[in-house]
Input
Amino acid sequence: MKKALKRHDSPEAITTDGLSSYGAAMTELGNREKQEVGRWANNRVENSHLPSPRPERAMLHFRQMKTLQNFASVNAKVHNHFSLERHLVDRQTYRMRRSAALAEWQILAS
Output
């Protein structure tokens, strides 16, 4: 908390849940009057702790937005190329489409 306040100055309000240690820390730092505690006030923060889908979780590790954009653009093209919607077609059709996609990919890669 000290590090965040030092880096980002003093905010107008600090939203936390009702945990008593937050109140003690805010009192110690002198920001007790800025603390907002409400039933749904901290909903955005609490939702960040929920399990996220696999692609989103992988993208959290990027430090720069440009790197994320580069990855996402390439990943989207590859995903669209190989996402053959297996649940909508029979096995033989899927295998045929899959081999065609792999053959095309090998041509593009070389």
